[in-house]
Write a structure and sequence with these properties.
The chain has nine helices and 18 strands. It is of the alpha/beta class. Mean pLDDT is 87; it is low at 3-56.
Length: 369
């Protein structure tokens, strides 16, 4: 995960450094290093400088990690009330291994409010963000259909939790600008921008889409508009652009007819990675050209047994390109918690994962290799 304590220089620091150079004809020692994510906020912040290939001190490989849907319902609610390990040691170590671990949190962060008129309503205390931080999650998206399950009061509490979160949060905000804003990280000379949004035309999208002066989630029901604008903006300033989408059909292992359209548009806008969840099952993964696509990450920390195949997706980035992928298969136990597979069950799960690429129309390698 992103290592703490090494932050990219702020623009003010670079200005001071430049003044010293002019006065003493001496260069500034050091370059932007690993940027540990600070507390998430929906207020505008000054962006960290983006190192170019010529100025970055280290362009070594960077690993990105992804898991699917998490919440703290039913049996999992106990994890918010007790101290100590949430997952077993090996699964926790696997979550902490990537330089940047990203997850989809499917819940409203509140104990108040009136439930929306929906089939399922999920909520948890703000401690959910602390638990994810302890597990090694570095970035959370709330751009999904359960982020606002408890009305205006629940949304207000969720935004307050986001402002105090130890983990940066994307996909939700005080207005449209904040909800679509990318979070940027600098890791070993590579800058990574991550955006989150929902493409679903559901209750949350109809009533709680963020707009000008209106809080809510980032909604992009078509592959156009604000989402593409922000992807282009991020691509102009970052080496790698990641888009985490809430999309697809539930319990379908193949993408629907709209998802490839999103992938094409996002790739053309500059997205290097497009991943998503919502289907609650694993879906196909691979490359479309040089853009890596993971259509469905399935459930991960989930209360029911409707779909128990899960895992951790890892991507290796080198010189701004995704050059390799790997998957750590796991199975969700009766208590809702995932456990990594070993031996023959692991091998069988990897075979199933590879076969999912068949109906996704994706390649096993990037086109440039």
């Amino acid at each position: 995960m992103v290592r703490p304590g090494l932050r990219a220089r702020t623009p003010l620091a670079w200005l001071a450094c430049a003044l010293l150079v002019a006065a003493a004809a001496a260069g500034c020692d050091g370059q932007p290093g690993d940027a540990a994510p600070g507390p998430a906020t929906t207020a505008p912040s000054s962006p960290s400088p983006t190192p170019s290939a010529s100025t970055a001190p280290d362009r070594g490989p960077v690993t990105l990690g992804f898991v699917g849907d998490l919440h703290f319902e039913d049996d999992l609610a106990v994890l918010l009330r007790r101290r100590g390990p949430v997952l077993d040691r090996s699964t926790t170590a696997a979550l902490r291994a990537p330089d940047l671990m990203i997850a989809n949190l499917e819940t409203t962060l509140t104990r108040r409010g009136r439930s929306e008129t929906k089939e399922y309503n999920f909520r948890a205390s703000a401690r959910a963000l602390d638990v994810l931080d302890d597990l090694g999650v570095d970035l959370v998206t709330l751009g999904n259909n359960h982020a606002i399950d408890y009305g205006r009061v629940g949304l207000r509490d969720t935004l307050a939790a986001v402002r105090q979160s130890p983990v940066p949060v994307i996909g939700i905000g005080e207005d449209e600008d904040a909800a679509f804003r990318a979070r940027r990280f600098a890791i070993r000379g590579t800058t990574i921008a991550v955006l989150g949004a929902s493409t679903k035309t559901d209750h949350t999208a109809r009533f709680w889409a963020a707009g000008p002066g209106k809080p809510g989630i980032a909604v992009a029901v078509r592959p156009e508009g604000r989402l593409l604008t922000e992807v282009r903006r991020a691509a102009a300033r970052a080496d790698v652009v990641v888009v985490y989408l809430h999309w697809g059909l539930e319990y379908r292992s193949c993408p629907n007819h709209k998802q490839p359209d999103f992938v094409r548009a996002l790739a053309a806008a500059g997205a290097d990675v497009v991943v998503g969840s919502h289907a609650h099952v694993l879906q196909g993964q691979g490359w479309r050209g040089d853009t890596y696509v993971g259509y469905g990450l399935g459930n991960f920390l989930w209360y029911n047994q409707n779909s128990v195949d899960t895992g951790i997706l890892e991507l290796t980035v080198r010189h701004g390109e995704v050059v390799a992928d790997s998957f750590r298969p796991a199975r969700i136990q009766a208590d809702g918690r995932p456990r990594l597979l070993r031996g023959p069950p692991r091998a069988a799960a990897l075979t199933r994962w590879e076969r999912l690429r068949g109906c996704a129309g994706l390649a096993a390698r990037p086109s440039s290799r």
